[in-house]
Design goal:
Elements (H helix, E strand, L loop, with lengths): L1 H5 L8 E3 L8 E6 L2 E10 L6 H18 L3 E11 L6 H17 L3 E9 L4 E10 L14 E5 L5 H9 L5 H11 L4 H7 L6 E4 L4 H9 L6 E4 L10 H6 L5 H10 L3 E3 L5 H8 L7 E6 H13 L6 E7 L6 E3 L1
Parallel strand pairs: 4-5, 9-13, 10-13
Antiparallel strand pairs: 1-2, 2-3, 3-6, 4-6, 7-11, 7-12, 8-11, 9-12
Helix pairs in contact: 2-3, 4-5, 7-9
Length: 322
């Protein structure tokens, strides 16, 4: 982020969303009724099964497009793979898993690029389309808005415990199920509501992405810890110390910008800081519409959808966990 701030900005009259507000994707207007959405994401394996890893990585990359209220259209594979140290079929399974998620999204894989590397890395560059007037950004929250989260938290904590052989099987299964579930349904449904802002929860965790969403106005977001949906055993594993390095970096990033009620259990605080892979959408909209949206999301299979907080006039900090 510090490096990006030092780079010269690209100015163009057709840029709708650039890098200024750390939005989920870039948006460029092609004509008055059509804009393209561009995003890219890749990372090292977080699960042992290569096919599942491919699914997770593709779902994660597609999520940025859904957060913008757009439809994914094309995907390019990004691959780093070691030479002579691993069966090439492992790569085949990764690509198969990723391709199947792109197909489920209604998009197509049209190519990609690979390099030799000591460590496996995989992801995708995704292009989507949206009407320029219907782009949903991560900024624009208004005082009084309700905040809805569509997936449970805890994937970073669970996968860290998995590497140590300490994650319960049920928790692993629920984490994987969450990470390979497209945000497609949630995105399509939210577009029928007066959504003011949306972001998908990934590396900065719930609290970090909530902070980013406050950058567009004078507001403070109140997140209610008791209402946070969690994957089974997340809090207990967090209290046992199964935390990612990203969690520490998120805490440092939020230093002086968030306040945490001292009565909240450590496990819940860590869940709110936990970097998520292929996390849910955090949606801000008028409070009067929140209950109806949650009900419709749950009725259509987004079972963890929950109202987890609200926006208020600015306080000393931008984000509060209460």
């Amino acid at each position: 982020m510090q490096v990006l701030h030092s780079l010269p900005k690209f100015d163009h009259p057709e840029i709708i969303v650039g890098t200024e507000t750390s939005d989920d994707a870039g948006v460029f207007r092609l004509r008055p009724d059509l804009a393209i959405v561009n995003t890219v994401d890749f990372f090292t394996p977080i699960v042992d099964d290569p096919y599942v890893f491919g699914q997770v990585a593709a779902t994660n990359a597609l999520s940025d497009v859904y957060a913008m209220g757009a439809e994914p259209t094309t995907a390019l594979n990004i691959v780093c793979f070691p030479r002579g140290k691993m069966d090439i079929q492992v790569l085949g399974e990764i690509l198969k898993g990723g391709g199947e998620k792109v197909r489920e999204a209604g998009a197509v894989v049209i190519g990609g690029h690979s390099i030799i590397d000591e460590e496996i890395k995989y992801g995708m560059a995704i292009t989507g389309v949206v009407h320029p007037d219907r782009v949903i950004r991560n900024v624009g929250i208004k005082d009084g808005d309700a905040l809805i989260l569509t997936k449970p938290l805890g994937t970073g904590i669970i996968t860290t415990a998995l590497k140590k052989g300490k994650a319960p099987q049920e928790s692993i299964e629920k984490a994987v199920s969450s990470m390979i579930t497209l945000n497609k349904t949630a995105s399509i449904i939210m577009r029928n509501y007066p959504v003011h802002a949306c972001s998908d929860i990934t590396g900065y965790g719930l609290l970090g992405h909530a902070l980013e969403m406050t950058s567009g106005g004078d507001i403070t977001l109140i997140l209610e810890s008791a209402k946070l949906p969690l994957i089974n055993a997340t809090s207990d594993l967090a209290e046992a110390g199964y935390l990612t390095g990203g969690s520490k970096r998120n805490r440092e990033y939020l230093n002086g910008k968030m306040a945490v009620d001292p009565s909240i259990h450590k496990g819940l605080v860590e869940a709110a800081l936990d970097p998520q892979t292929s996390g849910g959408l955090l949606i801000a909209l008028p409070e009067k519409d929140a209950g109806k949206l949650v009900k419709e999301l749950r009725a259509n299979g987004v079972e963890s959808a929950s109202t987890i907080g609200y926006a208020v006039s600015p306080q000393k900090v931008r984000v509060r966990l209460v």
